[in-house]
Write a structure and sequence with these properties.
This protein has 52 residues and is an all-alpha fold. The chain has helices at 4-23, 27-51. It has 2 helices and no strands. Helix 1 (4-23) packs antiparallel against helix 2 (27-51). The longest helix is centred in the C-terminal third of the chain and has 25 residues, at 27-51.
């Protein structure tokens, strides 16, 4: 179970990932960042589902 504070933390992590993605030099880097971002957003959405 995640607290709202944790959600905020994941939102920040996603913002960082977006920034990294924009500034990634290689397509490989972008791929990795994309995968990490997907994992983070999965965690957030699973929490949102539990809450509603």
């Amino acid at each position: 179970m995640q607290t709202p504070k944790e959600i905020r933390f994941y939102e920040l992590k996603l913002m960082i990932k977006r920034y990294q993605y924009r500034h990634a030099k290689s397509p490989r880097q972008r791929e990795l960042i994309e995968q990490q971002a997907k994992l983070i957003s999965k965690r957030v959405s699973s929490y949102a589902r539990l809450k509603s």
